[in-house]
Automatic annotation (TrEMBL):
This is Carbohydrate-binding module family 96 domain-containing protein. It comes from hydrothermal vent metagenome. The lineage of its organism: unclassified sequences, metagenomes, ecological metagenomes. Transmembrane segments: none annotated. The keyword Secreted applies. GO terms for cellular component: extracellular region. It is found in: Secreted. SUPFAM superfamilies: CBD9-like. Its main location: secreted. Residues 302-448 form the Carbohydrate-binding module family domain. The keyword Secreted applies. Keywords: Secreted, Signal.
Amino acid sequence: MKNILRITLLILFFGLPLLMAAGAPTETAVAEPTGVSTSRRINVPFTTAVVPDIPPAERAILWFGEVGPTTQSYADVRIIYNQEKLHVVFHITDRYMYYDPTPTAAEMPNWDAATLYLDLDGNSGSAPDGNSYQFIGQLDALNANPQDQRPDYDFAYMGDGAAWVESGLDFETAVGTQTTTGLNNQEDDAGWNITFRIPWSSLGLAGPPAEGTIWGLGLTMHDEDNTAHEDRNWPEGLSSTASSSWGEMRFGLPSYTPPSGVTGSSSLTIRDGENGVSVPDGHVGGSTNCGGFPPLWNTWGNFNYAGDFQINIQNQWNLGDWGCFSKYYVTFPLDGLPAGQAIIDANLMMYHFGNSLPSEAQPSLIQIFTVDEDWNESTLVWNNAPLATENVARTWVNPLPLGGAGVFVTWDLSGAVAEAYANGQPLRLAIYSADSARHSGKYFSASETFVPDRRPTLEINYGSAYGFTASTNTPLQTAVPGDSAQFVIDVSPTGGFGTAVTFQANSVPTGVSINIPAGGITPPGSKTITITHDNPSQTSGGLYSVPITMSGDGIERTVTLYLLVNGSQIFLPITTR
């Protein structure tokens, strides 16, 4: 039987903005980290080591692309810097490898090649200028050239304010391949790698940039398979001539300092199943069996492991074992944290119970990244998993002997948790490594493991932040033309805040006027604000939004008030079955 229920809804003029406004949450003013980054960023570590002794595992890593049968190619990009040079290595998983035996600069991108873009002014330019650099290197014949002397297989460019101009800048490229069948054929290979070594002097610098310096960074992987050609970019929307479309490269690793004036201390434990919390997770790639038996090109990038109770994190320098590579994704909800708090510290703990081939396993520097989008555990695979937004933490994980007891591994995620909390987002993470050794896989318990205490756990310590909360119970009010409405904004202190708060309306729309009584208030307290419609003869409807900015002791927050004039109502039936 079908039951028909008629529901009457009140839909006001400009209904969608109205409903959104009515549901506006309380706004809280606290001293917290800045918001979500608008671009992808890699934080690059410094090393005192020099070639050939720069440790691969200690490099920062990012990734992009897909693993597939033909044009799909995937790249891990490892980056580090020392006193002399910037070192960037592309490891490209590629089934078919093609190079040009007689290369020219113009044809370089038409073959298997890689391009590195740098902008010393950051990622904000609209055309390449004198601080913009492009470096491109192509695959070449096996052992045809000394690895730091590859005539005609790498080129440099500088910007002239409008376009790229070829330059004789000094830099090196080195190429390695993982193939048993040679190049320029349709036989299965594993991939290749190219290293860029760029002296600071070639960029007009006497030495490395100061820690905290941010450059624009762009990457392109050129893939030629003889039957088709494809370019893949990092970040996804990269334009080769506009650094505003590039990502960021920050020199040095991130750190976190809690805001001053925090009072009190509370803790929150977040793990799957505790207090009804769900912590979705999943790994992608080769799992613990390297994806099974080859050939893997048609299937590996789309393997899904939903429900696995143990996960693997693994990488390797030699692409001959690319099928063993594995990343892990996990998301922690933060809605258990009260409003108006400051993060003191936060740590991720994961239970490490085993590793690949214990007799040969080496330590792994496992890195943690934030991601900026949701994913579905039942459909999460290597080829659709989110790219990293930023690398935020790393910890050495030692191998366990065969039969050895498991241990908990801890990463400091204080800054990442503070940023996610400040932006009202869950903590979305990816975990991977830049390892070079074989048998680098490290096995951890997942959210589905049968022992609750061994599930991935986020421990957060927080306190009341120095600041204030600001809210109104009636963000939306209605009026007839020429009439006015009063709004009450309540302000409450947090973290020992005791400074006067002032109120301003910096952007008042045409058609209304606003009255804010003079003087500030020292929380707790309230301020009554009047918004008046200026045209008594108006016949049309209108929704007027007025942002109110409150400031005190360097802290600022905004609450938006809405006045609806000449609203109308329509009654709509909704049928449910």
